[in-house]
Every structure is written in C-alpha cells, then in structure tokens.
C-alpha cells in the first residue's frame, strides 16, 4: 500500500509540473542539435542514414534472403525505430542528473522530472 501512495504522489507531481516538463523537453530537443551543421534536421536524417547502412550491409552486402512476404527494410524499420527510442531515452534518462547538475545543486528543484524530460525529448524524434 505504501508503494501505491508513493507512485500516486509521483504521478500527481508530474502532472502538476507538466508545463515545465513540456518546455524543458522542447528546449532540450532544440539544444541537442543546436551546434550541428544541419540543426534539427539532423535528428531525422541520422536514423534514416543508419537504416540505409544496415539495409545495404545485410541485404546487399551479405546477400541475405528476404523474409517471406515483407521487404527487409520494412522489417528492419519496425524493429530498429523502437530500439533507437529505447536506447536514446534510457541513455538520456540515466544521464539527466549529470547533465542538469546546475539545477540539482544550485536551486530547490524537483529532480523527479529530469528523466521524464529526457524521455519526452527522445520521443520527439522517434515517435
């Protein structure tokens, strides 16, 4: 019963600060690609290039047989896009406290929302 109360308190806390989460997620998404040459476009180009490289290596290079009725690239995309999201969200969420250490150390700030910010930022690209 105690775990349910803690979970409900966390959900209420996240819902009460949803505007802050949304604005920090948008800011995180923009600053992630701000220094690159193509900017935000790079967020969408990079997964496409990776999928094309995988397709070329496994379909053309190794001359692997095609799955029964679906093109290989379709099967690849259905598996790799969720993996890109999972890897980006897990990596960003686990490093969120280190990346936002100025918020954790300097001011009174609810640190429970930091991993949620990184997961939502990853969702902008992969979902």
What features would you describe in this structure?
- The chain has one domain.
- The chain is built from seven helices and no strands.
- The chain has helices at residues 2-16, 18-32, 41-61, 72-94, 96-99, 101-106, 114-126.
- Helix 2 crosses helix 7 (114-126), helix 3 packs across helix 4 and helix 4 (72-94) runs antiparallel to helix 7.
- The protein is elongated, with a radius of gyration of 19 Å.
- The two termini are 34 Å apart.
Tell me roughly what share of residues is in helical segments: over 70%
What proportion strand?
A: under 5%
Distance between the termini: 34 Å
For the record, the count of structural domains works out to 1
How many runs of DSSP E, i.e. beta strands? 0
- Rg over CA atoms: 19 Å
Shape descriptor reads: elongated
Listing every helix as H and every strand as E from the N terminus to the C terminus, the arrangement reads HHHHHHH
Category from helices, strands and their pairing: mainly alpha
The number of helical runs is 7
Largest sheet: none
In short:
By secondary structure, this protein is an all-alpha fold. The chain is 76% helix and 0% strand. Helix 4 (72-94) runs antiparallel to helix 7.
